[in-house]
Amino acid sequence: MNIVLLQLKRIGDLILTLPAIATLRENFPTAQMTLAISSECADLLPAIPNVNRILVVRRNLLDLVLFLGLARQRFDYCVDFTRNDRSALFAFLSGARKRIVYRRRDRFQEQQARVYSDFVKVRKLAMHTIDYNLALVGPLGVRNVSRALRLELPQKAREKANALRRDSKINEPYVIFHPGSARAEKFWEPQRWADVIEHARSGSQISVVLTGGASKVERKHLCEINGRLRKPIVDLSGKTDLLTLAALIERARLLVTVDSAPMHFAAATQTPQVILFGPTNPFHWRPLESPALILQGESATPLSEFSPEQPALPMRQISTAAVIGAMDLLLSPHATTTAQTS
What we know:
Blueprint: E1 2-7, H1 11-15, H2 18-27, E2 32-38, E3 53-57, H3 61-70, E4 77-80, H4 85-94, E5 98-102, H5 107-111, E6 118-120, H6 129-136, H7 155-167, E7 174-178, H8 190-201, E8 207-210, H9 216-227, E9 234-235, H10 242-251, E10 254-258, H11 261-269, E11 273-277, H12 282-285, E12 292-296, H13 320-331
Parallel strand pairs: 1-2, 1-4, 2-3, 4-5, 5-6, 7-8, 7-10, 8-9, 10-11, 11-12
Helix pairs in contact: 2-6, 7-10, 8-9, 8-13, 10-11
């Protein structure tokens, strides 16, 4: 059996596709599986299990050459997790006899009806993203579906993380704060970040680490946070690649972040975390099987119920006290998996 999987979205989308890939591998252990991903996810390649080949789509003419070559491999199945014009073209070029995509009545559906053979009819907005991805592999007749989220971090990433910790004099236990995101509307107020960081390091037994990306908007946000701290902390922002960051998170006592890629790294490594949600709905993106406390809106306590119809809320509604309370709960000596979401 020869299967090609198309996931051309962002890092978080790719990570939440891993349970569907693992389910396919368990059901078809001898299948040849090819995974196509976007170039922005390329750094994750060494940690993605259960596939035989990974193709990096770079949004240029070389992609066409790449997939024209693949068309000669005679795929049996193509699962399109992306559902856009580019992935539709690649699905068509795959030549697979069974081409699967999500069914929704819109312009895309009308124009691409001839490209696909199977349309999965589910209520996407009423499902967690992991469950949606699992639904798309349903037409292959899978059983023993698993929602477990796992990355296979290479030893090299762990060695680089250990070297960073050693060079930066980071002792265990340590807490990672990752305030940034590719979307500025997910930023929490810099002074509030400074306040919760100061609270975390008020305990003499906890090291505090700041991480983040290298984009201009994120660097500006982190600079504003640093400027409000009473004294400098270990700042590794812009100094880690994706897998080194994941390895740092793996060993952390706690991650405090917004809805971003590090949230998914922590979920995959079973690291406890406090997550601040605003414009995105935690119903669709939250960790399902790892210790996590979710904060959104004006609630003084972490969310325990999630709704598919939750409206977007401004990040400023989340209070400093709510974040500190969630941090203290997960850092307490008696913290257990009672923080696990379900």
